[in-house]
Predict the structure.
Amino acid sequence: MARAVLPAAVWAEAIAFAEGLFDELDRRTRGPDGVTRASWGEGEQAAHDLVAAAARDLGLTVSTDAAGNLFMTMAGRDAEAPAWFTGSHLDSVPCGGNFDGAAGVVAGLAALHAFRAHGLVPARNVTVLATRGEEGSSWFSGPHKSHFGGRAALGQLSAAEMDAARSVVDGRSLAQMIADAGFDPKGAAEAPSIRPEMAHGFVELHIEQGPVLDRRAVPVGIVSGIRGTRRARDARAEGAHAHSGAVPREYRRDALLAAAAFAGALEARWEDWLAQGRDMVATLGRFSTDPAQASLTKVPGLVTFTLDIRSEDEALLRDAEDFVVAAARDIGAQRGVAIDLGRIDRAAPATMSPDLRGRLRDLAAELGIPAIDLASGGGHDAANFALAGIPTAIIFVRNPNGSHHPDEDMPIADFGQGARLLAALLAD
Ligand SMILES: [Zn+2]
């Protein structure tokens, strides 16, 4: 199929427009320690106001749903056909950077800026979506599943969850905050503003949160899947405290060496799986003896730890869970230590659409944009769209300093490559 090729001058103008938006976002929401756009707070609202005004200037149809998500639509040749949705969130973590989230919204607007300048009418409606409250884990305590705005748009947010989630800033419930921001929490409860049959697909451009593109010197990544998880938040190894000089090795029940052996066994198995080409990361983020009891001269009798295993392959997650349960039992038995992983929380991986990934790969080749496949370790709004049955893809853009950090440093040239790839997809 012949692709609509956007002339370089048109594209240069679109990138200048995007750069202007990034600069203004930074100016409005950066404090001394970084960019802060609290979910349903002042910074997020400032970003929504800026982006909505830019969309109106582009002649887009602008509306909000009951939760305050922002929809900015360019009509296509077939306005009845299922639409493209593209976008991301405009909130940030406290003292974060300028690009996590915002890059996806600005990329969608840059694509439509270029379409308009070139007189290109897309095949179907294109809606740029700016969600609310994707960084909910940073801003809300209480039992909740975060990604609030995107899930509200998909009808996945309940009234109970909006009452249970509490602002870490001032204790208000999420329902109250949505109301205080001028929106309608009752109307947002389990009432979708996007139903799967309305969507041809959802594509999110996002900065990469890890170092892979930077290390491999590639500007753009096409995400293969969003890793699912197996997490043990309250694991413990319980042996017996003993005198470090008086008790011979064979009589010890050393909790730390047992937990360390468990960690070593997991790492060895992880290496095997990687050698087989399977996707996995594993982290024991907390690992400690009991500070009240531990001492230089005591065999440790108790170690508490956490376990976070991620993979885009559900079968591997099941294998990994079986492995850690068996390793805990066997290593514990050999050493007279009870290794109890506690409750294991499970989240399924989100699969990206093979069709959309293929089209993005073809378009990248056609446009001469260097791109590689990679898994996403972090969660994104896109995961919820994929799990709702909407064909979904993510374009990652190289970002040397990591995300959730004041020094996020996406080069504008790399953003341009990612946004050009997005535009080529949205034109059809
Ligand atoms: Zn993000």
Observations:
- The longest helix spans residues 8-29.
- Residues 228-347 form a domain with the Alpha-Beta Plaits fold (CATH 3.30.70.360).
- The pocket of zinc ion is lined by residues 89, 100-101, 134, 206, 380 (CB under 6 Å).
- Residues 178 and 380 are 21 Å apart (CA to CA).
